[in-house]
Structure formats: structure tokens, C-alpha cells
Specification:
single chain, 533 residues, alpha/beta, Aminopeptidase, Alpha-Beta Plaits, 2 domains, six-stranded mixed β-sheet, four-stranded antiparallel β-sheet, 15 helices, 12 strands, globular, binds zinc ion
């Protein structure tokens, strides 16, 4: 149970401009909305710039320096390296309550490098990371909304504090549970999180998808000549393979909603050396905390069994965690009214043609960009699927995720096709629409603190009435800041030549010499592979 009576404390001083006559919330909403739209150029530059950095989780060095630099220039105070994560930060501006935080993820996807505005597989650098999820767009949404709000709050003397932060390594669910554990956002009253999508929307209640725990199991054996004296070796790779076989047998007896998958992060060095070390990295996903924990416990026993069978030593470490998401009713309903007023961007014929070509490139129905909003999401039958560590924050304060329309619908996700639109007018316009909703919603929360109280009443009396948040990470589990280092050390020097220079080029498409939309592969390169990956 936390705060419950913010309203009475600050209602009297919510908005009393010192010089001009008081403006209504409606008038101020129009002003902040226009102010966001006047920053459409900034949104485009930020979307394009972060796209060009193409950084993977825990290695978002350029992205973090760029966004914090911009916020610092605009009067925000920055705390860097929060929760022991070098690329994490918290930016604050304003004073007093409510304290409203804006978060959004910043990391990319391995091997998802792709030229924007081109509707067939065509990487700038083959094998390099890219924004194959669209996380390059969220900070543009948040920063543009925050700058417009700050300007209005300064001119009108509106009380409140804005807090901005990044989802670092969201693809590995490897930051937000640590923010919660280390109290990074403890002063925040409400979190408005943003995530790229293909439509504009928000939901409340238990969301679809799963929570998870991400665990790496490592085995230690004994090396020996693979042919000369194999009986003297104890293979750590055997242990990994036995663990995987056992888990894959176990699958049949797990609830159908579970999702689990693994990659072998260390499989030994070469065939003629009995592998002395081997590691396998698992995600265990389920719909509820208890089911996740049960599967995690099962996997630990299986790993212990694999170690016994191979005479190896087993150890394991948590690499990431995410609670299943539950979003706040009051905040979602408040936000949805703004979503209806803002509506979808005006898509051009080019946008539709591009979206259809992208959809065709991955075998989806060529439906183009969406033309209508969906309804507000409400609790209903739950479907299994992906996870987002915003769940951990959503179980510690009223939180919603606003989805904004910067990407093409119908794509497989975590894939190069999801990067195709992410530095095109589709992404730019979607980010502005999202920023409008964010600014308008936050303004309303600043001006009507009774809504913040109502949000906490839902959080305390409904959401957490019979559910207590228990983190999957322990007090001493370090954040996995070594993730993706080797990949980025390999590709960063190659990517640097393609960083977007907004001082020389209007858009990233212009810098790359790409005509938008490029729908088919030029006939001059008939030998180009259908898919180079
Ligand atoms: Zn994401």
C-alpha cells in the first residue's frame, strides 16, 4: 500500500498562473497538443538517429548519450548508471507531485539490420544488429511529449515532476526488475510506458502474454583428448544436451500456455577436446508468478540431474525477469479518451503501398496501414505470448503501456521486416501521434491529481488486493551488463559510418539515398539473393 491522498495536498495549487487568467484544462490540452505537433521535426530526427545506432541490450551507449545529452540541454537533471547498469539513466524535471514517469525501450535485435524504406531483405551491414522491433521510436515519443509539457508547465506554473527513463535490454528482460529492486523509481506516482505497435491503443487489467525468468545454466567438466583419452574427460556439453532433452520431454506435461526456449551460449571449443565448460540460456515463460516459479524450480532440478549423469558441476544465474503485466484502469481510461481525440496519423498512398509490400515480403496479408482505432483493451480471455519487464514496474505503481502506430501490422516480430518501416514517414508520424497522447494524458494527471488518487485506489484495492509482488531476482543478482558486448564490439565500428547526421541530411532516408517507398528489388541486381540471411 502506498500513497492514497495526493489530491487534497496539491489540489489548491494545481494550476494558478501568476500573470494570465487561468486557462481551462481543455485550452491547455490544445496548447500542449499543438506544441507537440510543432516538434514533429525533432521526433523524426530522434527516431532516425536511434535507428542508425542499431544497439543491442546493455550496449546502448550512443543511444543513452544522445538522449541524456538532449534532456540535459533542456534543463533535466540526469542520473546515469542507475541500478548498476551503465546505459541506464533517470532524467528529472519539475518540482513536487504528482511525479509522472515516461519510459520506453531502446535496444535492438541481433541480425536484424535492414535499410529503412526498402520492402525486401536488404541489410546495410549483413549480420549486424538492427531495430527489428522498433525500439528506436519510443524515446522520441517521450522526449517530444516531455519538452512540450515542460514548456507549458513553466509558462503556466503547473506543479509536478516529469521523470524519463529507458528500458535497457528489454529483449533480454534485463533492466526494469533491477530498477524496482534498487528503488530507482520509488518517488514516481504514475508511469506512462510507451511501446511501438501498428495502432494507437491502451489496455487495463491483466494483459495478454506472459511473465518470465531468464536463467543461464553452466556446467563444468574435465577436458581430455577427444580420441586419445576420451574416458578421462567429463563433458559439460553432454550435460547441456541432457538437460535440453529432459526439458523437451517435460514440455508435454507443462501447461499449454507456457513458452520456453533456449540457446546454447557455450558449446565447447572444438570437437577433439572434451568440452570442459558449456552453458545453456533459457527463458521460462508462463501466465502467472506461481507457474513461472514452478517451471523454474523444475528446470533447476533437471539441471542438477544432468550434472549427476555427467559427473559435472552445475551453477546457474538469473539473467533477466519480467512479471506478467497488469495495467491501471483509471490511467488507461483517462488515456483512451485522448487516443480517440488524437486518432491515427494520415497515411499516404505511399505509406499504404510500402506497408503492403512489407507484409507481402513475409507472407502476410497485404492489408496496409490500419485505418481505425481498436477499442480500449479490457480484461478478457488471456492469450499466451511474449513478455515485457514493464510488468515489474506495473506491480509497484499505477502503470499503463501506450502502443503507438510506428510500424506495419502483421509481421513476425524480432525480425528484419520489423525494421523496414522504422525510419520512414510511418514511424515518424506514429511517434508524433504517440507523443500527443502522452503529453495530453500527463497534463490531465498533473491538473487533476484526484485521478492519481483514483489510480492508486485501483492499484491498492483491486490489482494488489490478493497478489503480492515478489521479484524473480534476488538482492545480490547483478544486472547482466556483459550481454551483447562481443557482438557490438564487432559491429559498432562498421555501423558508425552509417550514423545519421541530421546536420547534413533532412532525413536518414535522404542520407542513405533511398527513395521511399522502394517496393521491389532493382532488376539491375538479378543475382541478389532473395533473403541474404
Ligand atoms: Zn519491445
Amino acid at each position: 500500500m502506498r500513497r492514497s491522498t495526493l489530491c487534497a495536498a496539491i489540489a489548491a495549487i494545481a494550476f494558478v498562473p501568476l500573470s494570465a487568467p487561468a486557462q481551462t484544462l481543455e485550452e491547455l490540452t490544445v496548447r500542449v497538443d499543438e506544441s507537440v505537433q510543432s516538434r514533429a521535426k525533432l521526433a523524426q530526427v530522434m527516431v532516425d538517429k536511434i535507428f542508425s545506432f542499431s544497439e543491442l541490450g546493455q550496449q546502448e551507449i550512443e543511444t543513452s548519450a544522445y538522449v541524456t545529452g538532449m534532456l540535459e540541454e533542456n534543463g533535466f537533471s540526469i542520473e546515469r548508471g542507475v541500478a548498476g547498469i551503465p546505459t541506464a539513466w533517470v532524467a528529472r524535471w519539475g518540482s513536487g507531485r504528482p511525479v509522472i514517469s515516461f519510459g520506453s525501450d531502446i535496444d535492438g535485435i541481433p541480425k536484424a539490420n535492414q535499410k529503412p524504406g526498402v520492402a525486401y531483405a536488404d541489410p546495410l551491414i549483413s549480420g549486424a544488429p538492427g531495430h527489428g522491433e522498433g525500439h528506436n521510436s519510443g524515446q522520441a515519443v517521450n522526449v517530444v511529449a516531455a519538452l512540450a509539457l515542460k514548456e507549458l508547465m513553466e509558462s503556466e506554473g503547473i506543479q509536478g515532476t516529469l521523470v524519463l527513463w529507458p528500458g535497457v535490454a528489454e529483449e533480454q528482460l534485463a533492466s526494469k526488475a533491477w530498477y524496482v529492486r534498487d528503488g530507482v523509481l520509488d518517488d514516481v506516482d504514475v508511469t506512462l510506458f510507451t511501446h511501438v505497435s501498428s495502432n494507437l491503443g491502451v489496455s487495463w487489467g491483466q494483459a495478454g502474454g506472459t511473465g518470465l525468468v531468464s536463467v543461464e545454466f553452466s556446467f563444468e567438466g574435465e577436458a581430455a583428448h577427444g580420441a586419445g583419452a576420451p574416458w578421462r574427460g567429463r563433458s559439460a556439453l553432454d550435460a547441456v544436451e541432457l538437460m535440453n532433452v529432459a526439458w523437451n520431454f517435460k514440455r508435454e506435461h507443462l501447461r499449454p500456455d507456457q513458452r520456453s526456449h533456449y540457446v546454447i551460449t557455450d558449446g565447447g571449443d572444438q570437437p577433439n577436446v572434451v568440452p570442459v565448460s558449456a552453458s545453456v540460456w533459457y527463458y521460462f515463460r508462463e501466465m502467472d508468478y506461481e507457474d513461472i516459479q514452478r517451471n523454474y524450480d523444475t528446470a533447476v532440478r533437471i539441471a542438477e540431474g544432468a550434472a549427476m549423469m555427467t559427473d559435472t558441476e552445475m551453477s546457474y544465474r538469473v539473467r533477466g525477469a519480467a512479471w506478467p503485466r497488469h495495467f491501471n484502469r483509471t490511467v488507461a481510461e483517462t488515456m483512451y479518451e485522448h487516443i480517440e481525440e488524437v486518432g491515427l496519423p494520415e497515411w499516404t498512398e505511399d505509406d499504404h503501398a510500402f506497408a503492403e509490400a512489407v507484409q507481402q515480403s513475409v507472407g502476410s496479408i497485404p492489408s496496409g496501414m490500419p485505418m481505425s482505432l481498436g477499442p480500449i483493451g479490457v480484461p478478457g480471455p488471456r492469450r499466451s505470448g511474449g513478455s515485457d519487464d514493464i510488468g515489474d514496474i506495473a506491480w509497484t505503481m499505477p502503470t499503463v503501456t501506450m502502443r503507438f502506430p510506428s510500424n506495419v501490422p502483421g509481421l513476425p516480430g524480432h525480425h528484419w521486416s520489423s525494421a523496414m518501416a522504422m525510419a520512414t514517414p510511418i514511424a515518424h508520424k506514429g511517434a508524433v501521434a504517440g507523443a500527443r497522447v502522452m503529453a495530453r494524458t500527463a497534463l490531465q494527471l498533473f491538473m487533476m491529481p484526484e485521478l492519481v488518487d483514483e489510480a492508486w485506489a485501483y492499484f491498492n484495492d483491486v490489482q494488489t488486493a490478493d497478489m503480492e509482488y515478489v521479484s524473480f531476482i534476488g538482492p545480490n543478482d547483478p544486472p547482466p551488463i556483459d550481454l551483447n558486448k562481443e557482438i557490438m564490439d564487432t559491429y559498432r565500428p562498421l555501423l558508425e559510418q552509417y550514423y545519421y547526421d541530421e546536420t547534413r541530411f533532412d532525413t536518414y532516408l535522404e542520407q542513405l539515398g533511398i527513395t521511399y517507398p522502394t517496393l521491389t528489388r532493382p532488376i539491375s541486381s538479378p543475382d541478389a539473393p532473395e533473403s541474404p540471411r
